[in-house]
Amino acid sequence: MEFVRREAPYIAPKANVSSMMLQVLVALIPAALAHVWYFGPGFLCNLIIAAIFCVGGEALVMRLRGRPPLATISDYSALVTAVLLTFALPSLTPWWVTATGSLFAIVIAKHMYGGLGFNVFNPAMVGYIVVLIAFPMDLNLWVAPHMGDIDYQYLTLLQTIAYTLTGALPETLTFDAISRATPLDAMQAGLRTMHTFSEIWANPIMGNFGGRGWEWIGNLTLAGGIWLLIKKIIRWHIPVGVFAGLLIPMTVMYAIDSSANAGPGFHLFSGATILCAFFIATDPVSAATSPKGRLVYGAGIGFLIFSIRQWGSYADGVAFAVVLMNMATPAIDYVTRPHIVGHPRRGQRQ
Amino acid sequence: MSAAPTYDLGKLHGGLRLQANKSASTAQAIRKVPVPAQLVLPIAQHVGDPAQPVVGIGERVLKGQLIAEPDGALGAPVHASSSGKIVAIEPWPVSRRYGENAPCIVIECDGEDRHIERAEIPPAYDTLPPDVVLTQILQGGIVGLGGAVFPTAQKLMQAVTCELKYLILNGVECEPYISCDDALMREYAREIVGGAQILLHALELDSGYIVVESDKPEAIHAIADVLAEVSDDRLVLKQVPSIYPSGGEDQLVQLVTNLEVPSGGLPTDVGCLVQNVGTTAAIYDWIINHEPLIARVTTITGDGIAQPMNLDVRIGTTVADVVNFVGGYTDRAEQLIIGGPMTGKTVTTDRVPIVKATNCILVLSQDPALGPEMPCIRCGNCAAVCPVQLLPQQLFWYACADEEAKIRSYGLTDCIECGCCDLVCPSHIPLTFDFRMAKARYREMADEKARAERARLRFEARNERLEKQQKARDDELSRQKETARQAGPEAIAAILKRKQQAKDED
């Protein structure tokens, strides 16, 4: 009898990349629904555009590289990039902005570096930074959260689709009538114009501990993130690092002067902090890889977010923080190598 | 006596809790495989140089008779597992990777199983000086039965030169499917404990641990009962959780003593000597019963085997004979693995014989779930399970880039090839195989370099020698010239004249 030749081990691995990516997508569904609830159906329009250009861009590149496109698309990593980019964009974004960000993310940031597993930078964040710099006006147009007591007009589904396709509002509406500063913008601008924290907090866009609406998106993102932790799709080091890097200095600042600084709760539940900690910074390809390295990497991102929000010209800064720390990843990996069993420990001679 | 508690264990990084799949083979007692028609005994069943046959074709041999003598420092003798006639000494497929050929002594058994004469009264080993006991162990052909097949006597002789603290008996059979040590502990606890006592005497030690995984309650009870009976306070039973690969030698030392075996070193460097429980039982058999290592307990299991069980089988019995004994293959039999599912080797034919190292014959269907290999996404799952705390994702990266210095600094040679990283890799990269290949490649390159270095030294030495000779000739010539110059033209003329005369006389 002839038997086959194989190499040990003979037990098949259970996890696979596609199912990991799918679980990341599933974990984001509650937050996405909250986003639609508070900021209108624009999120869905953006998501469709982003998905088409991310996945289409990937298929095109794979074709040009002479590889089967379907095998690559079916790892769902391009779809994750599309979703993360969509979360970063305002709900009203013209399609060419989304398309530019998507193509830049996939074609330049991902595949020009060799595709999945080889990209140095987080593709979604690179795509976002490009459109943030190229289309600053469009990226500043955030509508107020859809809540009963805020005086604001919102767009219907058809009007949203029309805006996405043309970039023009219905004639009866003006930008001023629908747009509001984001809570982070309002906080940063308010504090810099010497308003006290409590004066700014009187603004109806502020909620219990973060921006209104944003709080709930944050809660649901957190739930999704914790689910990923439980399913062991991500590990705790990066989220803990991000929170520590951002919240510890924020708490110190708040303790020193609580009228001139927003508290840690506000920073945690406004903007993209939670999304960054669990879904963006945890992109394993562009992050540091050892447990200690991931803590350092996360803390670096958190501290950069703190610095940008505190002293920078952008109100949030997640994308810049992530991309800057991506640059530091090889160095972090090098200095945080774990002790190999049987090797002399640091400062110990054999 | 109740089972010993799990206590004060060292910390082991990573590892996996794997589905054991052992109950099929431990459901019944160990069964003895009858003498086969033919025995195939490889002359290399240990890590050192092959043994040299001391029998000729056509010669009759008895059970327990020496048929090949150790050669070199790391040798181990081979004994006939039954009586019969030597019919061939020839290459035969053995349980190396894929079942390559290696020289074997083939015995046609006469079925009488006649034993070579043995001393009737076993000498009390504890009256003998320790080094005599060590020399006796050398002659028993005993090698490490945990899989490494390092000659036991040499391991012990190295150990007595070190400052030893503990003897550790390895009953941690952590690899799935394999249950031969479990079965042995259940049924031969007396022999195991007896062997441990012999070792303590031979090593002049007074502290030993018998370490068993907590998922083997029957084995723990059996050992505990014997320990209570012999009431030897030098031996302590210790339980460890069943996490693969706690049974690796260095891992076990770390678990039991919380000491790390230095990279490239041995457990004796931290005062430990580890012996597999099967090896200890074999030492007992040899020292007390004068039975050399000619049989062992082997697990035969997997979904490709009709009746999985543990067998007491003679070394040299072919896998085909063993499979026949247990009722043949099922129709799912596709892979024949010698060893376990994590570290075993596939062989292409069941003509390979059971050797001293064969702890398991695993016949499996092929797993269809294995997906295509994808790029590494640096998820770090591999690093989380690595028992040596390597970063397999980085090793893989540098292995692909063929950066030898980098891959060495990331600890390639510290990889124990346990296979844990493969099992958690979402990209289905054959990491262990890649590391094995990289190790082989760099070993080969180092050998090549050493050869080139030797050749260079030889070449330079030759040049130097030639130069020296040339210089000596030149010196001699100039010395002669100088002598001639000093002597003056008359002397030269006289010499020439003398030479001319000598010529004329011829």
Helical content class of chain A: 55-70%
CATH superfamily of the largest domain in chain B: NADH-ubiquinone oxidoreductase 51kDa subunit
CATH class of the largest domain in chain B: Alpha Beta
Q: How many distinct domains of chain B?
A: 3
Radius of gyration computed on alpha carbons of chain A: 22 Å
Structural class of chain B: alpha/beta
How many DSSP H or I helices of chain A?
A: 17
Helix residue percentage of chain B: 25-40%
Poorly predicted ranges of chain B (pLDDT <50, ≥5 residues)? none
CATH architecture of the largest domain in chain B: 3-Layer(aba) Sandwich
Net shape of chain B: globular
Percent range for β-strand residues of chain A: under 5%
Assign an overall shape of chain A: globular
Percentage of residues in strands of chain B: 15-25%
**Mind telling me the C-alpha Rg of chain B?**
30 Å
CATH fold label of the largest domain in chain B: Rossmann fold
Give an overview of the whole structure.
The complex is a heterodimer of chains A (350) and B (506). Helix content of chain A is 61%, strand content 0%. Chain A is mainly α and 350 residues long. Chain A is globular, with a radius of gyration of 22 Å. With 506 residues, chain B is α/β, with parallel strands linked by helices. Chain B is built from 15 helices and 17 strands. In chain B, the strands form four sheets. Chain B has a six-stranded mixed beta sheet with strand order 1-14-13-17-15-16, with helices on both faces. Chain B has a four-stranded antiparallel beta sheet with strand order 2-8-7-4, with no helix packed on it. The longest helix of chain B has 57 residues, at 431-487. The relative contact order of chain B is 0.13. The mean pLDDT of chain B is 90. The chains are: A mainly alpha (350), B alpha/beta (506). The interface between A and B is large, with 43 and 70 residues.
